[in-house]
Every structure is written in C-alpha cells, then in structure tokens.
C-alpha cells in the first residue's frame, strides 16, 4: 500500500509539473507576441510569428520575403518542450502547421493591428490547456481552458 501512495504522489507531482510547464510556455508566447507587436509598431514594419508543429519563430517582411528577425535575442526561434502541441485557427478555420508552401503566420502590422487568431496549447492526445487570442484591434490575451472544454 505504501508503494501505491508513493506512486500516486509521483504521478500527481508530474501532472502539476506538466501544467506549470504549459502555463509557462503560454505566458512566454503572450509576452513574445506582445514584444513582436511592439517591434512592428516602433520599427514601422510587418512582423509575424510563424507557427510550426513543434514551436514558432519570428519573421520580418522585407520587400516580398519573410526573413528571420535579426538582432533581437528574445525573438529567436522557440521549440516547445516535450509533447506540448500548438493548434492555430484563423477565420474560424484550423490552419495546417508545417506547410512549406503556405506557412502558418500570425501577422503583427506596423499600425498595431493583428489578423485575428486563436492559438491553443496543450499536451498531445489531451484537450488544450491554454488559449492565446489575437483580436483585429491588436489586443492579445491569454485564457486558461477548463477541463473538458476545447
């Protein structure tokens, strides 16, 4: 019986660590998206977060090309830990991630506007835990998703 109790505590502890990790990543994304938005406004240029199946990277539009952001260490490419996953919706439709022909991007304009989006973070094979929302006005906000809601 003692072994069962120890194992239960270990599993609960790991679950809490996973939840904390998901929350940390969601809050990091929100902060970095706000930084990219600010850089777009102050630099009078378009920036984007390119969303990948296992992370995201920030890009700047130069002429007709999207290039990696240079010179801002915080906007370096990011990989999600473990089996944390991203889902993106724009125009209320799921956006496929990892398509080289049509990359999934969240756009931050120099006017402060953002193309509306819903980005969800969660663990593989589980309901999403966090939702990052971008409004056309440029407002970005983060919501925790209750168990059972997706």
Reported CATH architecture: 3-Layer(bab) Sandwich
Shape assignment: globular
Radius of gyration: 17 Å
- Amount of helix: 25-40%
> Tell me, what is the CATH class?
Alpha Beta
* CATH superfamily caption: minor pseudopilin epsh domain
Order of helices and strands: HEEEEEEEEEE
CATH fold category name: minor pseudopilin epsh fold
Question: What low-confidence regions span 5 or more consecutive residues with pLDDT below 50?
Answer: 1-14
Overall number of strands: 10
Q: What is the tally of helical segments?
A: 1
Mean pLDDT, to the nearest integer, reads: 88
Largest sheet properties: 5 strands, antiparallel
Count of separate structural domains? 1
Helix/strand class: alpha+beta
Describe this structure in words.
The protein is of the alpha+beta class and 150 residues long. The chain has a single domain (2-144), classed as 3-Layer(bab) Sandwich (minor pseudopilin epsh fold). 28% of the residues lie in helices and 35% in strands. It has one helix at 2-43; strands at residues 47-52, 55-62, 65-68, 78-79, 84-90, 93-94, 104-108, 117-123, 128-134, 140-144. Strands 1, 2, 3, 4 and 7 form a five-stranded antiparallel beta sheet that branches. The radius of gyration is 17 Å and the shape is globular. The N and C termini lie far apart (37 Å). The model is unreliable at 1-14 (pLDDT under 50).
Defining traits:
single chain; 150 residues; alpha+beta; minor pseudopilin epsh fold; five-stranded antiparallel β-sheet; 35% strand; disordered N terminus
């Amino acid at each position: 019986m003692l072994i069962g109790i120890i194992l239960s505590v270990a599993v609960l502890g790991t679950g809490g660590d996973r939840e904390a990790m998901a929350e940390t990543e969601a809050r990091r994304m929100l902060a970095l998206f706000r930084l990219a938005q600010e850089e777009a406004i102050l630099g009078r240029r378009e920036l984007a977060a390119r969303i990948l199946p296992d992370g995201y990277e920030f890009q700047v539009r130069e002429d007709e090309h999207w290039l990696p952001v240079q010179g801002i260490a915080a906007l370096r490419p990011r990989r999600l830990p473990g089996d944390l996953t991203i889902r993106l919706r724009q125009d209320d439709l799921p956006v496929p991630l990892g398509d080289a022909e049509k990359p999934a991007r969240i756009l931050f304009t120099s006017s402060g506007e953002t193309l509306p989006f819903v980005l969800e973070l969660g663990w593989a094979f589980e309901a999403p835990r966090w939702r990052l929302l971008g409004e056309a006005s440029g407002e970005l906000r983060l919501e925790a998703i209750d168990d059972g809601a997706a």
